Amino acid sequence: MKGVAEMCRWLAYRGEPLHPSRLILDAQHSLVAQSLNSPLGAETVNGDGFGFGWYPTGAVAGSIPAVFHSIEPAWHDENLRELTRAVESPLFFSHVRAAAGPPIQQTNCHPFRYENWLFMHNGALAGFSETKRDLTFAIDPSLYPHVHGTTDSEVLFHLALTFGLHDDPVGAMTKAVQLVESVGHDHGVRFAMQGTIAVSDGSTLWAFRYSSEGRSRSLFHSADVPSIREMYPDAENLRNFGVSAQVVVSEPLVDLPGVFLEVPESTVVVLDDAGYRHEPFMASAV
């Protein structure tokens, strides 16, 4: 059974405030560049809309992030260029979409937002047309009115919210994925979950890499900036980033060895004030 896949690319940043354009537009293999040519992606071109979500500089804990969605290809949208060069943010998400089922409309563009939370996903819930009813009915009734689009990703987000994302993000994502796999099995879907996921409350960033089959979409995070500067002392562009800068991305933004580290299968990367750490995620399920 086929799912309604989202074969996409995404980027998340946490650290000192900077203009998002430095990563989304200006990097060697920026997210906009990946929207045109994605060597590691399931789809080479990701031109079915995009999204940008950011927490304003100086925002207090619990602040609601801003979001901008468009059905234009990211490489074609002047508003994205204007916006990402004008604002500064210490934590932002950006996502370029390759739709393979759900229609091209703004409500289907990532990142999704609920209160102070941002969420985005690359991958698919296999057999979603068969499992959609059961999964949607499992969403808390108070959250259901906030599901505005038709993607499996948005349902997954609201399942995680239902299972306590506010209090325990890793535990809530575990329960959401377990439900996806259980309902999938009930409908004859052997490998129900595929994807990489980013979620943030505006302070901490969690990035998950997991698939039921153990063959997940690609995901990388940057090494710590002091180590990168030691490896490449003459790299001028590194001066644009503070010592706490951290990037998680579907594909490396530069070709320099050692700058981006692959996230292992069945792993969640937690990025906070202490830096980054890896924790197992659904490891026993693979």
From TrEMBL:
<feature type="domain" description="Glutamine amidotransferase type-2">
    <location>
        <begin position="8"/>
        <end position="274"/>
    </location>
</feature>
<dbReference type="GO" id="GO:0016787">
    <property type="term" value="F:hydrolase activity"/>
</dbReference>
<dbReference type="InterPro" id="IPR026869">
    <property type="entry name" value="EgtC-like"/>
</dbReference>
<dbReference type="InterPro" id="IPR029055">
    <property type="entry name" value="Ntn_hydrolases_N"/>
</dbReference>
<keyword id="KW-0378">Hydrolase</keyword>
<dbReference type="InterPro" id="IPR052373">
    <property type="entry name" value="Gamma-glu_amide_hydrolase"/>
</dbReference>
<dbReference type="Pfam" id="PF13230">
    <property type="entry name" value="GATase_4"/>
</dbReference>
<protein>
    <submittedName>
        <fullName>Glutamine amidotransferase</fullName>
        <ecNumber>3.5.1.118</ecNumber>
    </submittedName>
</protein>
<dbReference type="InterPro" id="IPR017932">
    <property type="entry name" value="GATase_2_dom"/>
</dbReference>
<keyword id="KW-0315">Glutamine amidotransferase</keyword>
